[in-house]
Amino acid sequence: MNISIVEFFENLPSKLCTNCGKEIEEQHECYGNICYSCIGIKDIHK
Prior knowledge:
Layout: H1 5-10, H2 36-39
């Protein structure tokens, strides 16, 4: 079955921080796997 690339990325599951397990609020296809809190950066979305 062929799906469009857009559909593929829209259906990726949410990423979880490998350190604390919280959901990461960024694009799911990004390479990062540690949340801002765990790496010591203030949440830029607030």
